[in-house]
Amino acid sequence: MSQRNKVVASFAEAVRDIPDGATIGFGGFAMPGTPFNLIRALAEQGARNLTLVANTTGGAQQPRMPDIALLVENGQVRKVICAFTAATRASDVLPFTKYYEAGEVEAELVPQGTLAERMRAAGAGIPAFYTPTAVGTELAEGRETRVINGREYLLEYALPLDYAFVRAHRADAFGNLRYWRSQRNFNPVMAMAARVTIAEVDEEILPVGAMDPDDVHTPGIFVHRLVKVPPPPEGLWPQKRQERNR
Amino acid sequence: MSQRNKVVASFAEAVRDIPDGATIGFGGFAMPGTPFNLIRALAEQGARNLTLVANTTGGAQQPRMPDIALLVENGQVRKVICAFTAATRASDVLPFTKYYEAGEVEAELVPQGTLAERMRAAGAGIPAFYTPTAVGTELAEGRETRVINGREYLLEYALPLDYAFVRAHRADAFGNLRYWRSQRNFNPVMAMAARVTIAEVDEEILPVGAMDPDDVHTPGIFVHRLVKVPPPPEGLWPQKRQERNR
Amino acid sequence: MSGTKGWNRQQMADRIAREFQDGWIVNLGVGLPTLCSNTDIGGREVIYHSENGVIGYGPIAGPGEEDLNLVNAGGQNVTLKPGAAVVHHADSFAIIRGGRIDATVMGAYEVACNGDFANWKVAGAKGGGIGGAMDLAACARRVFIILEHTTRDGRPRLVARCALPVTARGVVTLAATNLGLFEPAGEAFRVRDLAPGVTLEEVRAATGCPVLA
Amino acid sequence: MSGTKGWNRQQMADRIAREFQDGWIVNLGVGLPTLCSNTDIGGREVIYHSENGVIGYGPIAGPGEEDLNLVNAGGQNVTLKPGAAVVHHADSFAIIRGGRIDATVMGAYEVACNGDFANWKVAGAKGGGIGGAMDLAACARRVFIILEHTTRDGRPRLVARCALPVTARGVVTLAATNLGLFEPAGEAFRVRDLAPGVTLEEVRAATGCPVLA
What we know:
The complex is a heterotetramer, with 2 copies of chain A and 2 copies of chain C.
Chain A: H1 11-15, E1 23-26, H2 36-45, E2 50-53, H3 68-73, E3 77-82, H4 95-101, E4 106-109, H5 112-123, E5 128-131, E6 145-148, E7 151-157, E8 161-168, E9 170-171, E10 177-178, H6 187-193, E11 194-201, E12 225-228
Parallel strand pairs in A: 1-2, 1-8, 2-3, 3-4, 8-11, 11-12
Antiparallel strand pairs in A: 5-7, 6-7, 9-10
Chain C: H1 9-17, E1 25-28, E2 47-50, E3 54-60, E4 78-86, H2 89-97, E5 103-107, E6 110-112, E7 117-118, H3 133-139, E8 143-146, E9 158-159, E10 172-177, E11 180-184, E12 189-194, H4 200-205, E13 211-212
Parallel strand pairs in C: 1-2, 1-5, 5-8, 6-9, 8-10, 12-13
Antiparallel strand pairs in C: 2-3, 3-4, 6-7, 10-11, 11-12
Pfam families (chains C, D): CoA_trans
Protein name (chains C, D): 3-oxoadipate CoA-transferase subunit B
InterPro entries (chains C, D): 3-oxoacid_CoA-transf_B, CoA_trans_fam_I, NagB/RpiA_transferase-like
């Protein structure tokens, strides 16, 4: 393991091989844990016809950051799979909405816990599972349910990813990762679900052996490429949120 | 959270309320992570008609330690749910075997990964899931299977626990736990699956706030009672394994 | 309604927060529910859980105190209480789906007296904003809703049956509005509390289904 | 068979270990398979995974070097390599079931030329010892078996169909015995290697189904 160094010199190199049509998961919940630098590199790389999996369709944060809304605006996206496909306030209009309403991008709306569990299932070799979430709602219409111990559950299928883009706080060169506070969110689950996981990392990447085995959040066997995020302004970092006027 | 102190003075007090007929999960894989002290206290407490969930039926380790075989020999057990209900070498005879062959104790044999996943599912509110494990084997006979994307899977149900007995390395008084190396094994999963989790802890229990939130392996919301393991000989600790002559 | 009677936003949240019992694990939704964390509930300790895996968060971080990698479900920078722990998203929803959340507090567009409620999709919208609401609604032990009693144009939000797509069916424990605290009771709401100066007749006039005293 | 020809236990393990490619994640079962970690495979690095959640373990701990809270799947105290990580049991089997194990090596009572094998239950036993074998057999990318070619009383362990309850069906990649290395090929085994001094005729005489050169 000590010889296997997964560090890549640039974000461009880390995303170079992503083909048109790939399914990519993006960690992040609000600013923390969002792989802004990899997203920007993917926008520059230009792969098209992508399916993107993330909590939201992006574009709601102030200041505006490179999130998946950038890829949508860039014409690279065929479909998004998200827990939010519209703003929570009817008065807000997201960048995504225009493309969605015009039929230029498809969307699959998935409850947040189901979204996380579908990726966890993909990573865990579980092809399908039952959940109480969304039973009796529009999302369950026409879909398979099952009564178990007197309660009705909805059948949900695993959601595997071709690539996961994650952001971590600390890494060793083998790809063992640690996250800081709520930076963790979807990142470990997406790393499990993906064939190839690419991590952007806050801190200098440590030599193999520098991380205690009990302190690892995402084992290196799930991680394939690592890029250190440069200091600003070259690298993108979470910003202090600006409250919008309403 | 700071006021909520879950430390209990003795193993006897920690297990006092366990009723006849309870379903109890026991962490541990070989010596590491096995709650020997809680098991000994349960043997002294005397609850009967118990269903026990553990990796093995116990009794195979040298030196012999209080594991679930002790509870079986003590006549407290109705059923075990384990990944091993016989020795892996035909020449070995486990303490459990005599009771099982005499029909005094029932056994449900479950593949180890399915066992872990059934408890994880219980903890995660997933009532049932599909797995490729055991398809085409005697364990799948007469049971429900389903073909998903061309592969056959077996339906497995969640396995909830009334109590989990776990062993951890470090704890704070709120019940946040850390494990040392392979002590972790089934313990976090059983803590998730149980209504009441009781932890025996290697180190002095820390004040609330002394553990970094990113370093917690089992969050305190899953843990209800904590007992510090005294030094030997009063407290039971993993022993150096003695190889048996064969 | 007059602007001087009934509860204001903080008072609605206060009324719900007073239901919290010592040791409860509570998930507060974005918006009005967040105000529950301001309520003085005496010596009772509540553990706040957020969908992104934060267990035991504290007040919103003050200026200069923000950790930009630590937010609540609304994306606000929060603080942590002693004893806090962080888990990943699948484990966070394992906590929710596994029944460990004693109470969830959410906003809504509509609550029906059969316990249904709607809060993820407005009429005519193509998309929706579900977030963790469906998981929380289906799985938390108690679902508390905070909402204005009527829409801006005066139509009732407490109704016989939801007109909008529901978030979950039959799950609402209590709904707090500017007029009081109400419990779904099948074919009617039952009044648990009236806000100061509000009469039962006023509530009935502003509600889309029968209201029991 | 003569005691002087064919492979001994370590040589059987060596032959399997030489199949390991650089960067593979490998799970070694209890007993004979453990010997694979003794094999010199040159500059190739293999990551050993154990069912109890240890990723990247190293050699068995020497006297005085043991960590009593660190064991492999056989309960032996092992060491860790740099870059090791520990996960819990559900995550450990997520790694297995999720298809991340490049090869699993197990012992067996019987291997059939259709790729079935049996290693968890002996004839007439009431219980069985499955452990992680069924998960590994169903989900690892390659299943390597190490076993003596015949039972102590000379009956073949490489057979047309398993008589014992199987662990998984159609999954065996290669089986190493004291006589050589064999690949299940449907209605026959195909010889990949003969051990020194062993003839094809000897193999055929000791095998319960056709053997292809």
